[in-house]
Amino acid sequence: MQYSLGPILYFWPKNQVEEFYQQAMQSSADVIYLGETVCSKRRELKTKDWVALARELAGKGKQVVLSTMALLEAPSEVKTLKTYCDNGDILIEANDVGAIQLLSEQGKPFVAGPAINCYSQHSLHRLLKLGMQRWVMPVELSRDWLQNILSGCDELGIRNQFEVEVFGYGYLPLAYSARCFTARSENRPKDQCELCCINYPNGRLTRSQEGQELFVLNGIQTQSGQCYNLINDLAGMHNLVDVVRLSPLSADTLDWLEKFRANKNGQCPQTVERDCNGYWHSIAGMNLATP
């Protein structure tokens, strides 16, 4: 089993991003995803900076993937998408079907990201024909669902033609909206947000009236209120999952990467009382089940 670092989902200052990837370069991560996937206003790093960083990481032996935006809203964002797709040799994670269309037209392989609504073996078959080589399962799906869809892929004779990646750590990206909830929470219109996301390095936590941690607001993204954590479910992923993704929250994520590796067969379980893993177990997503 391999381990990946997903794209940073939050708006971090440029020096913090560069410092994180300098540490990631020395880490045991097999795959590193880069790029801005949430909001095009977050321009601390330009497209050329992401491409340069990708080439530096690839030079250190990491498999590097450039991730595209999940919700395109302006011609300028489509232009950036085309720049990504025209980069040459760096693999792309497509997070909307526009990226899939561009890459398919160019005959380039791609990773189908978690924002792609793909829920059947027949959809996977279609994506394979377009060039998919790895599929990141939508975050709200379960182990049972994954097992069933892969059985369907066996029947179609396509199971061995792609890798499966599962979101295993971090706040779950549950929904995207044309509205910016972080700006709204500061009573600002979206076009006058003043880049306030940079004040919330792990998103802005919201609670219910009863005080329960409910959601995390991250720009146009609504995330889970608890950190999703499948570290104690790794033993049940063998023969189903090829890559486990950790979504960066801070440099501590690299410590969690080593804990995941140590527990790949369940020999080093961790205490995760405040986290959740419900979706993997086919129960309410915010719940925590003991494997």
Which characteristics define this entry?
291 residues, alpha/beta, TIM Barrel, eight-stranded parallel barrel, 8 helices
General description of the model:
The chain has helices spanning 14-25, 47-59, 75-85, 97-105, 121-130, 143-156, 181-185, 252-262, and strands at residues 2-5, 31-34, 63-67, 91-94, 110-112, 132-136, 163-176, 204-207, 213-218, 221-229, 243-246. It has 291 residues and is of the alpha/beta class. It has one domain: Aldolase class I (TIM Barrel, Alpha-Beta Barrel). The chain has an eight-stranded parallel β-barrel with strand order 1-2-3-4-5-6-7-11, surrounded by four helices. The model has no long low-confidence stretch (mean pLDDT 95). This is Ubiquinone biosynthesis protein UbiV.
